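TEACHING EXERCISE
Course module: macromolecular assemblies
Task: Read the component lines below, then compare them to the predicted structure of the full complex.
Student: A.B.
Group: 4
Components provided:
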Amino acid sequence: MKRNDPTIERLGAVRPFARCSRRELAVLARTLTEQRIAAGEVVMHEGTVGRTFLVIADGTAVVQVGERVVARLGAGDVVGEIALLDHCPRTATVTAETDLVVHSCTRQEFAGLLVTVPSVTRHLLHTLADRLRTADCELAAVATAAAVAPASTGRR
Amino acid sequence: MSEHDFLDQLDADHVERLVQLGRRRTHPPQSILFFEGDVPHDVILVRRGDLKVSTVVDGREVVLDVLGPGAIVGEVSAVDGRTRSATVTALTTTEIVAIPAATFMDFLGQHPVIALTLLRCMATRIRDASRRQVEYGALDAVGRVCRRLVELMDRYGHPVPGEATSAVRIDAPLTQGDIAAWAGLSREAVVKALHALRRLGWVATSSRAITVLDVDAVVARAAVT
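Instructor-supplied answer key:
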């Protein structure tokens, strides 16, 4: 490993990899592929099988469920990990809002990273903990609104 | 619910080593293991019994999940160090193993395969929470009660012997109030929905159990299209 390998330097600047050791960054540099995605291009489609995990290094993307925009993603955000973890179809469509620079890998490479690069696993645990708190809050709010509204008991 | 069962996805050796890191405790029915807002100390592994995970919004209880043997509870706070996001209550006599959060996190660091299993369980829970949000929008009261009945059948259902059709009796430790808080309904709405289902001949209720008489109809009514 070269001391100032530019790929390693770039990876180390991306938030999920900021706490990685040099050894871990070297594994990431061998595993991840840097890709450019043009604004307007669909990064992943809702309902399809998850095959890719990616980390946004630069640019922004929009997350949509159906027509509804549910989130905006930017540098340091991870995309596609849920479908790779639970093997279910994608829950949302992600579209590049600006030109994107991403680091990506396949399902098999992702599983390997989680075993060989503990810093990435720790980062994902935090990311999913955060998402779970948000999901539970949203669920509780929706459930409360549904319970307060007079619910029909008839067939719709 | 079964996909949440963290311990069932680990091999026996890992389960044994995890259990040895903690202390066994038994909680009687209706006892509270921890409150929303508590400072986290332990991760809890459920060995026997059933728990409900709930929160209160505008004075109304919402049941976020019902968990049984094999489940892990309190892992979110162990990961991020923030206060408990929900209250956890024993529905039945519950045997648990409480592992200090820091010990659990160290163990995960030494066993990436277990960390991966935990990530998978968390991903499943996130997806379930999203699915239930959609369900609240897409299903009416009867549909939501049917959805809960399907989940209760999976966990607590027993085929009723002697019935011509495939009737399933649900012996669940949940009250109608719990089912209401789980379905995003008032208790009155659950009572009305069960009344409607009885009139259709799909369910029979007694003071102790709900029997689903027409499983196919209840499953179809619970589907989000």
